[in-house]
Amino acid sequence: MPSLKFKLEAVSPVFLNGADPKGLPEFRASSVRGQLRYWLRAIIGADTSDLRQLHNRESEIFGSTKNGSVVSVRFFGQDFQPSNTEMLPHRIGSDKNPSRALSIPAGTSCDLSFVMRPGVEFPELLSKAFSTWLLLGGIGKRSRRMFGGFRIVNVDRSPTLAIDSIADRAWWTRQLKTPQSLLKLIPDHMGWLFPQSAILVNTPPTFPTLHPQHSRIVVGMRPFDSAKAVNMAFFREILRNDALPFRQNEQMFGYAKSQERRASPLIAQVKRIGNQFYPIWTVMRSPLVRPDHQPTDWKLVDALLDEAERQFDGTTVWGGKF
Q1: pTM score
Q2: Ordered DSSP codes for 302-321
Q3: How far is CA 258 from CA 142, 255, 261, 262, in A?
Q4: Mind listing the pLDDT tens digit of every residue in the chain (322 residues)?
Q5: CA–CA separation, 319 vs 322, rounded Å?
Q6: 3-class secondary-structure state, position 297
Q7: DSSP output for 66-115
Q8: Would you tell me the crossing angle of helices 124-136 and 51-62 to the nearest 10 degrees?
Q9: HSE of 258 in the Cβ direction (CA atoms, 13 Å)?
Q10: Which one of 33, 81, 91, 125 is at 20 to 30 Å from 165 when CA atoms are compared?
Q11: Which of 168-194 are b and which e, b meaning 16 or more Cβ less than 10 Å from the residue's Cβ?
Q12: What is the rounded CA–CA span in Å between residue 313 and residue 268?
């Protein structure tokens, strides 16, 4: 069968539970498909605000009730010993005990395969969604707070796989050898996603997109020795710093209260380059789903990203201030 196979390695602990009643973590292909759908919508949404068109384009790849998916996603990991990991490492040493959960440890290897129907070309949109997910996102609980990230170790493409030449521009076809290369890679990647100027949207889209008017990506050049060290620095120096203006408005970065839980618009992740780790922050602006929620103050979100630039030697590499 035509396939594209990736050997991945967890950069940070992965909190990904399955059907095990004891809460043992496991590799789940369905979770990967969920991430691919999310990032696919973030890409398509920069070109159209028509939800029907978005659904149709997504269904062409992942299927719907009317037609099956053109690709099978397979996700397997090596044997590993679950780790009892702090989900809030910034609380270590404080009077608050950090929450713990079983995780797939950092450094664990896994295989991710895309198997296409015979005679079906590997879709360019799928390549874009997959590349963007691995570059900016993660998987599992706390994946917006620097957990659940992966790096690519090896790529194996079967000779029978038909793939559009444009899709070969994916960033994983190149080696990330220096942190400076990351500063150039992300704008190049976004230029591949949007080869022509995205449509101008005067109001925020109804769902998160990577439209340059409604998103901002910041890359930090301050090196760390581990993903955990990046996580702790981000929380202690920025998110939980009482001296900063957004500290009293932390609900805008996601919260859980009764049935009002919503995801944070801030996706913080970590990239490993050599033996050093570097932070990436992605924000996609969209209104809240429920009208009774307090509107997000996007100026405070900008203030957080500005502080990340200052504290972590960061640079805005996509989009701009809201």
Answers
A1: 0.90
A2: HHHHHHHHHHTTEEEEEE--
A3: 19, 10, 7, 11
A4: 788 899 999 999 999 987 776 778 999 999 999 999 999 999 988 877 778 888 888 888 888 777 888 889 999 988 889 998 888 877 766 666 668 889 999 999 999 999 988 888 888 889 999 999 999 999 999 999 999 999 999 888 887 777 766 666 778 777 788 889 999 999 999 988 887 655 655 667 778 889 888 899 999 999 999 999 999 999 888 888 777 776 655 555 554 454 555 678 899 999 999 999 999 999 998 876 555 566 677 888 899 999 999 999 999 999 988 7
A5: 9
A6: coil
A7: SS--SEEEEEEE-----EEEES-GGGTTSSSPPPEEEEBPTT-EEEEEEE
A8: 100
A9: 2
A10: 33
A11: ebbbbeeebeebeebeebbeebbebbb
A12: 15
**b/e burial code for range 232-265 (CB count within 10 A of at least 16 → b):** bbbbebbbeeeebebeeeeebbeeeeeeeeeeeb
For residue 220, which amino acid is it? G
